[in-house]
Amino acid sequence: MAMSRWDPFRELASIQDELNRLFGRTYGTEGGEDQPDVRWVPALDVYESPDRFVITVELPGVTPDQVDISVENSTLTVRGERKFYDNMAERDFHRIERRFGSFGRSVSLPQVADAERIEASFDAGVLRIEVPKREEAKPRKIQVKARA
Are 84 and 36 in contact (CB under 8 A)? Predict the structure, then answer.
């Protein structure tokens, strides 16, 4: 049986490699630090008012014609692409922290959503999607009448 010297730093490096792979899968950098994955996930908020659901998506550097919104089987999907700089080569950069490439986000719509009347607007790099509720789903006040 051959004996080998125990190197605790080798085990620490192994743990660090595993953590890098874990975070890479979670945050979209599976290619490693030298070869980051080009996909990115734009930030998205969803909130509800009495008559509609509002979805906002941060899309800096994206124009409205680069965005596609679709609804299928009660799932609203936003897809598009943020292109790399047209007039710059990647080798000319000292640092690239922003993500480029295709993106996609999906949101399940509740049954009360009226998918036929969805509207979208784009302002200052923020996409705003308004999903009205069906009339029968909106809360209504019922007045109680007193008997005379």
Answer: no
